[in-house]
Design goal:
- This protein is α/β, with parallel strands linked by helices.
- It contains 14 helices and 19 strands.
- Strands 7, 9, 10, 11, 12, 13, 15, 16, 17, 18 and 19 form an 11-stranded mixed beta sheet that branches.
- The longest helix is centred in the C-terminal third of the chain and has 20 residues.
- It starts with a strand and ends in a 12-residue tail after the last strand.
- The C terminus is likely disordered.
Length: 443
């Protein structure tokens, strides 16, 4: 049977993992796919660095065009990252009749519809299992395994850097800057970690998950996104004392035809499965009308887990080609028109419980003043913790609210932050009880 010839554009960490699997597991892949999957070419600007991979039978070049112009190559793997020139290369590959496999979540989240339309028109496939949650097969699971179910909510820990930092703060009692430094030293965080700690990377992945779960389009810049930079060891300790863990969650829900799409630090019950997801691991917790809650857990990044997800798409393509159905499945798993823009519920309409920490001067009447302002804005207090000052500096008043509307909370905190007794802005964290299995609506 004819071999499937592959070209790899981008020979970084994940590209190295892909090459190792294709070259070292060739016999196993042939058994799984029914044909030889051969890495013919690699294109990268840095081909001198030793990656620990023997490339004796692989042609190398600094030009991606060498892959695009090779008629024997049926699949281009795009692991360059970013928007350009990756987008142009993908479109050129599609125009040349080549299938594409990519791990590029930023590209798919921002331009996925355009790329999927081009692929469908040309009769080729875009494989993107590696774009979300590394080695966890969440793309295939939402598109195929859960195809019969109507998903009504998703909660995901889908950024290993942020989860490592928050987990280390929880387990070691360290502050954010120390844990970020640890993450960088261990290779979990980039030298510039802003995409991870500010939540944009998570928003890109959530946009892809929403397309797969609901068949609608949400642009990353429409997703409410808040990072973890302001979380302190104090908040971690108070959360633990109150029975919660703090996680950076990607959250999506559908109700009455409106979608929520948000990324922010979230307090969840210590008893929830997501609370136990530690270090750089990822997890996606989805709830459907028929299946109820299901959770996917595993390594969300890294050379070999992500490389394995890339190669899994190659195996799928090889199998479909053997059946003469190289474009058998829609990219997002929905037939008909390409995804329409989702009708998003404004963030200010969110109804949630809240954790609030007020750094204030140690003065009589401060608590009643803050409580009064919250009450004036329709915010009911569930409980209050106020510990005496242990050293020079502010005292901290901790409040948990009953359910309140985001708009009312924001307005109230604007007033409180301007009080003379307020020494810094209030730190607040949304509490998400709806990801608890007991809150899932029965089928």
């Amino acid at each position: 049977m004819e071999a499937l010839h592959v070209g790899l554009a981008g020979f970084g960490t994940v590209g190295t993992g892909v090459a190792k699997i294709l070259l070292e597991e060739a016999a196993w892949l042939e058994r799984r796919s029914g044909r030889q999957v051969r890495l013919k070419r690699i294109a990268d600007l840095d081909l001198e660095r030793d990656r620990g991979v023997r490339l004796d039978e692989v042609q190398t070049s600094a030009r991606v065009e060498d892959i695009l112009e090779d008629p024997e190559i049926r699949v281009m793997i795009e692991l360059i990252g970013g928007i350009e020139p990756a987008k142009s290369f993908v479109l050129e590959a599609i125009a040349a009749g080549k299938h594409v496999v990519t791990a590029n979540k930023a590209l798919l989240a921002s331009h996925g519809t355009e790329l999927f339309q081009a692929a469908e028109a040309k009769g080729v496939q875009i494989g993107f299992e590696a774009s979300v949650a590394g080695g966890i097969p969440i793309v295939r699971s939402l598109r195929e395994g859960l195809a019969a179910d109507q998903i009504h909510s998703i909660a995901g820990i889908i950024n290993g850097t942020a989860n490592y930092i928050l987990s280390t703060m929880t387990e070691q009692g360290l502050e954010f800057p120390e844990c970020l430094q640890q993450a960088q030293e261990k290779g979990y965080a980039e030298a510039d970690p802003s995409l991870d700690i500010e939540g944009q990377d998570t928003a890109h992945k959530l946009a892809i998950l929403i397309g797969l779960a609901y068949g609608v389009q949400v642009k990353p810049d429409a997703i409410f996104t808040e990072g973890i930079q302001r979380i302190t060891g104090m908040d971690i300790r108070y959360a633990r004392d109150l029975g919660y863990r703090i996680k950076l969650l990607a959250l999506s829900k559908i109700q009455d035809g409106e979608f929520e799409a948000r990324v922010h630090p979230t307090m969840i019950s210590q008893s929830h499965l997501l609370a136990s997801v530690g270090q750089a691991f990822n997890a996606v917790y989805a709830a459907g009308r028929s299946t109820g809650p299901v959770m996917f857990y595993g390594k969300g990044a890294g050379m070999m887990p992500t490389g394995s997800a890339v190669v899994s798409d190659l195996v799928s393509l090889a199998r479909m080609m053997d059946q003469g159905k190289a474009n058998d499945l829609p990219s997002l798993g929905f037939y008909g028109k390409f995804p329409q823009d989702a009708r998003l519920r404004p963030m200010e309409e969110l109804v949630s419980k809240y954790y609030m920490r007020f750094p204030v001067v140690d003065r009589p009447g401060v608590l009643s003043k803050i409580s009064g302002i919250l009450g004036e804005h329709g915010i009911s207090i569930h409980s209050v913790i106020q510990k005496g000052r242990q050293e020079a500096g502010p005292v901290h008043i901790i409040m948990l609210t009953h359910e309140a509307r985001e708009r009312d909370v924001q307005h109230a905190l604007e007033v409180i932050d301007l009080l003379e007794v307020a020494l810094d802005k209030c730190l607040f964290i949304r509490i998400e009880d709806s990801v608890d299995p007991s809150h899932i609506e029965p089928a």
